[in-house]
Design brief:
The protein is built from 14 helices and 24 strands. It is 28% helix and 23% strand. The chain is globular. It has a nine-stranded mixed sheet. It has a seven-stranded mixed sheet with strand order 2-1-3-4-5-6-7, sandwiched between helices. Strands 22-18-24-23 form a four-stranded antiparallel sheet.
Length: 495
Amino acid sequence: MTLAVNEPLITRPTHAWLRHVHVAYAPGQGTPLIESVASELLNHFRLLGHHVQEKPDASTDVILTTARFGEPVNWRESVLLTGRRRFNIDHMPTVFTLIHTAPAKFQEMLDHFEKILAKEPPDPDDFAFPGLAPQAHRILIEQGRRGGPIMSLERLLQAQSKSIRILLVVGDDRPVAAYHFDLVGAFPRSDGSDPAAFYSDIVLRMVTSVSTSEVVEHELMPEPITRATWDSLVTPAAMRYASLQLGKRNFFTEMVVVADLVAVPAVAHAVASQYSEGCYATWDPRLDALIATITGSARPVDKGNVTDDDLAVIVGVRPDGRGAQVRHVQDKFNTSPSSEAVEMMDMDNRLPRITLGAEWGLDASARVPVVRSKLHGHRGIEGYDPRRVEFVRLDPPYYHFPVSCATQAQAQGIKEAFARAECLRNPGDPRQVAFTVLPGHGCVIAEKWIPGTVPFRVMWEYMDAGYLDVVKRVPQGVMEFVPGADGKLMLKAEQ
């Protein structure tokens, strides 16, 4: 990205693919501080070479709006839900809702959630807030136990403001910090101690999110797989078994259903009615394809207990990179694969293939990717045994300016990270598992071909043995692994 002026404002590595964007301001309810923050953000958009518009139009990429902390927004006034009609545009720009709260109120809410989340069993009445559906407590409890009190607060503000991307500004007469909330549940923090760096950081995070595109335009390939061929495969049964094993270890969190959080009609054009967290895939030598879990945005899917109808077949990536290439199976319910389908498939393109030996029976002599199975989940990694597991770093910008799920940028970042994995580049390396961590998002784990095992078995056995410490909390920014006890490397993350 070429900056127009004030290049010294940028002191951290940024993504090479950032572009200039068009941004408009459509204020809602707010406070004097949040109006000042919005004004400064628009100024910094200009300083960094972006285009600030008087009102949204066909070229708009970003709309900034505002809402009051703790006060529900009527869905008819939500820019996210009604922006296209309100501004007479055919597309919906990415909406960021700015919300202000005082430090004391912010801490009060975190303390409140920490207290009520600790109750056994939780009391649903503790989670009764204005604007929520009667059953919303289930989501606030589950999400809070996954990511801590701030994640319960995040889901509450998203439901009340009728917006997904929120900038929560904390301060009295000036910003002390700002938290960035999104669909996955990220909450990275921008430090307000240096105003110029503060506003530049926020702008760059927003620009990062809109400079990449989703890769979910999957292409259906000809020649469906016959039911007889599908029934002869061992991989679907292995996927079903792996789902149960991963489910026992609570790797996947419960699906978030929008209607369980807030009663809003006709949201499908703005956000899926539900989404499931995580996906996994394993290579089938007979099909020369990945068998992967389907997307949870199309219909409810329990990733911890899948059926054959919850599986899809991925055979490639579209030449334009905008989605995966899939094959359907005759006489089976066919749904698109998870939004991470492109990253699951494309990461093999930078890695070697191997020839399976005689110990693989009927699959002997098959040429397969060096990675057998892949697991993507909204979980963190607290530590690992470097004698058995390899950690692969993302390119530096991903730690400072995280990217969204299901995007071309995420797929590219994961592909480049695993391309550097020594244990995958050298199939003879004794380490059987490699992983990376996506800040604010989760982890991706790759497993090699290990004779005598079923897909994913080494992963879950490593989890059980403590060779790979999977935890609920996901680091939000810069991280490293430093020496700990028993030869393990332990997470040290930026707060």
